[in-house]
Fold this protein.
Amino acid sequence: MDDSIVTVQEQIVYERPHALSDVLMSYCPGCTHGLIHKLIAEAIDELGIQERTIGVSPVGCSVFMYRYFDLDGIVAPHGRAPAVATGIKRALPDRVVFTYQGDGDMAAIGMSEIVWAATRGENITVFFINNANYGMTGGQMAPTTLPGQVTTSSPGGRDIETTGMPARMAEMLANAPGSAYVVRRSTYDARTIREARKAIRTALRVQMEGAGFSMVEFLSSCPTNWRMSPNDSLQWIKDRMVPYFPLGDFKVADIVKHLT
Amino acid sequence: MAKEFLEGNIAIAEAAVRAGVDAYFGYPITPQTELLEHMARRMPELGRVFLQAESEVAAINMVYGAACTGAWAMTSSSGPGISLMQEGLSYIALSDLPMVLVSIMRGGPGLGNIQPSQADYHQLTRGGGHGDYRCIVLAPSTIQEAINLTVLAFDLADAYRMVTIVAADGLLGQMMEPAELPPMRSRSRERPPWALTGARGRNKRTIAAFGLEAETLEAMNWQLQAKFDRVRANEVRYEAMLTGDAEILVVAFGTAARIAKSAVREARAHRLRVGLLRPITLWPFPYAAVRQAAASARAILVVEMNTGQMVDDVRLAVEGRVPVHFLGRPGGSVPVPDEILERIVGLQHDRTAQIARDC
């Protein structure tokens, strides 16, 4: 028996991103909020901006975002995150400021604030979580609920005759004169997760270069309110959401092309 | 500094600049628009932040964002716009953030009109938005006082970390008067220990007007009330004029008080024992001062440019010990000294008649 001391060289190949706090998240099993949080935190780590980043939480499931990120943070009133972020960014132009907003927060009550932040070319980054319903309040119809989709406030399925068609935010904000980088991604498989990670990094770099408004929309899952298993939810994103909300780049201004 | 001939809105704006405001966000609305226009020119030329927001909703939330970084932030508006700001003001209140709001009141309700009014007394002194909170409310009656109170507003907002309001009306905002501006103050302040600046070399900081558990939010509420109690104890301001021997006490604020002063002087010339108590802080309201000034009074006359709002506070102050009468001109009308004098004389006659009856 060899009694010599064996030194084991540990090599860390994977760990919690520094920009994420070591706390339990309140998100439901299978919800992709947690995954998207992790991707954002990884990008913040990679860019080395944790010490100068300020996050603006919305109202909705991700109101608790400020607890999960190890960053300075503020909770904005419902829909007003882009205006709060504007105030922070104008006061501290050298900091990195992002909002994290759901579809009810941004596309319903906060439509005015987001359109104007993009129109002004506000130098902030917006992460937009589109899960086609109001998660926090128990699954009501959202501006992004698909035609015919059953929710607690569209029990017969969304009737487009009376409620119109779902809002396509990435396409809309790509038209804003001040937007520099507006894309839609998802996280339903390894490939889309990889592309989402890259887009987050690009969006933050757009801001760091002072190039204008940047937004990444994520098609996200809500297994609890969709009444589906986590796997079926990911499949539903792919089969039902992507046809109406195509993944892709909707605005990549010339001055930020080198960042993509 | 010498006296200059200044318009109220511009005097308030320039006073804010000299007090050290870092960031202004606003939206045009009569009768305060000149304030925003002055800021549009002055703030950029001084390298400070000016942004015309897309709405009052956005403006107050931009203030919220700037204030959370420790910047001295402000906005200004009038009743309809301040109605839209209530959500943000409520959040800012529970967040313990300093900010200054200038309210140049106009006739209401609804779109109302653009004439001077005091109809937003309740809106400003009762919190205004949802939840239990108060704002410090300073009511000038001259342009010089508007300047002084604007500077004070920043100091109070900073000291107590709360929303501080300069409450004037369209008349004070639009008229011109000689007044002296203060010298430019240095803005080299230390960033406060609660400011969000990015967690560099320290733990992260959070600002959330939010307490999910009942015990948490209850504690936050009591903490807020303890702060408001300190303000009540330390910051009451008022002017008492000829109240020592007053048999009839007039209580009025702002423009109405200015007009009432003329009526009180006129009444004194007619040997009527009349005095004026003018609250300068509408919140905290000078309850004790009103009670004291009313000690020798047989009647109180409250004069307001509304249908009767501050009169509630006067009644609370005297707790039924003195009859409280009211003269109000709502909807943008401004009372003239003669109609106030007429009511004073009428009250004196009632009193004389009562003495005759009693004898």
